[in-house]
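Thread amino acids onto this structure.
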């Protein structure tokens, strides 16, 4: 715990009060707080190296290019990609999935083809596929979720017919924390020839991700959910697939040469990075990756699992609290409801106590419907949280019950 305090100390935003209370931040699934080193790296870039990348011969441009490309190397290393060109910088997981949907899926799909997703997806892994279905005549099918929040693998196997062209699923559910067996899901998908997409938005800040081992075709990453800045993320794609794909957006940096008669594309990954990218964001994300590596995923996961067990204990000891989805393989997300109380009211009372949780449908409306709910409360845990934070949550919930229950 002492070490956790040292970790928490490197997050300046955690050291503030809300009203008279210490901030207890339990909303890291929405976005993680940023360590000082990430903030410093962004400031340093703008103070010393600010220049556009890949095209300047001057010193600042070379420094900025080197820092940006170094971040790509760090991410490729973190995720065990076989080559760094497989990492494309995008705005976030949402943009990564839209890129796959439009640049990979759309030209390849037609009537009769099936895109298979799961009932626990974030809207970012539903709507891009719905758009592609409308554009191509393909159809969307959905693997159901069991009562404990795990994926119904038997249903998955029976839905996995030869018509399935794409399987896209969350590595970790943002709403209930289920960790899906993505390696097995991808292996089964490959047996019917389907292309696999993993939405890793909730994974890379919390658990070791080895893309070569998972052997997926695409993997979407959200920088701001892994201690990096907002507005930056990555798409991993297998090199051969990225090479086969046409660009998604046109503009600067994604071309080799342009004439009015013919334009030729730059190499992967630049082919997919049209326009001036979020240079400071990428650099900040690279520093976040170093920070994660310094702590180590073993330590992060172990700490979060301990907190998860303790948090469930705290909540279940309160009369009137129901936990929603608690699968055997769960990340540090605790979804819960208070009988007879609207989650938004719980969230407001907790905020008065300095406790930040998320309430609502968590951009996972179909999953809420699956559990017969309009909304839940969600406490999401991170390496900088402590048991004390969960005690504060418990006290706040009891107070909410006293006032509203
Ligand atoms: N997928 C999941 C599972 C998420 O939790 C989120 C964000 O909450 C997203 C995708 C979207 O990520 P981003 O904010 O990077 O676009």
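Threaded sequence (405 positions):
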């Amino acid at each position: 715990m002492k070490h956790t305090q040292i970790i928490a100390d490197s997050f300046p935003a955690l050291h503030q009060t809300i009203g008279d209370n210490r901030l207890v931040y339990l909303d890291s699934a929405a976005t993680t707080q940023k360590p000082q080193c990430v903030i410093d790296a962004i400031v340093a870039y703008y103070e010393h190296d600010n220049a556009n990348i890949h095209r300047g011969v001057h010193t600042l441009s070379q420094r900025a290019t080197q820092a940006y490309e170094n971040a790509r190397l760090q991410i490729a290393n973190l995720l065990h990609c076989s080559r760094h060109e497989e990492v494309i910088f995008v705005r976030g997981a949402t943009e990564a999935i839209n890129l796959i949907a439009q640049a990979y899926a759309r030209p390849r799909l037609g009537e009769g083809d099936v895109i298979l997703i799961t009932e626990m997806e974030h809207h970012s892994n539903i709507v891009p596929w719905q758009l592609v279905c409308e554009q191509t005549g393909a159809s969307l099918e959905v693997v159901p979720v069991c009562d404990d929040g795990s994926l119904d693998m038997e249903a998955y196997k029976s839905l996995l017919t030869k018509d399935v062209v794409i399987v896209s699923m969350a590595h970790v559910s943002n709403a209930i924390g289920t960790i899906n067996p993505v390696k097995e899901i991808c292996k089964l998908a490959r047996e019917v020839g389907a292309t696999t997409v993993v939405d890793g938005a909730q994974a890379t800040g919390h658990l070791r991700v080895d893309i070569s081992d998972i052997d997926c075709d695409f993997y979407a990453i959200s920088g701001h959910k892994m201690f990096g800045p907002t507005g930056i993320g990555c798409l991993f794609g297998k090199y051969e697939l990225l090479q086969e794909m046409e660009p998604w957006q046109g503009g600067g940096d994604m071309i080799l040469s342009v004439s009015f008669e013919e334009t030729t594309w730059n190499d992967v990954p630049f082919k997919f990075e049209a326009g001036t990218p979020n240079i400071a964001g990428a650099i900040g994300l690279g520093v976040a990756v170093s920070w994660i590596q310094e702590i180590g995923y073993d330590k992060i996961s172990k700490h979060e699992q301990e907190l998860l067990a303790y948090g469930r204990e705290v909540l279940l000891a309160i009369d009137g609290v129901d936990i929603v989805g608690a699968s055997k393989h769960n990340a540090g997300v605790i979804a819960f409801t208070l009988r007879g109380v609207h989650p938004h009211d719980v969230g407001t009372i907790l905020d008065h106590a300095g406790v930040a949780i998320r309430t609502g449908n968590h951009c996972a409306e179909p999953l809420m419907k699956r559990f017969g709910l309009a909304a839940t409360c969600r406490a999401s845990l991170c390496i900088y949280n402590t048991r004390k934070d969960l005690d504060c949550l418990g006290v706040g919930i009891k107070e909410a019950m006293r006032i509203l229950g």
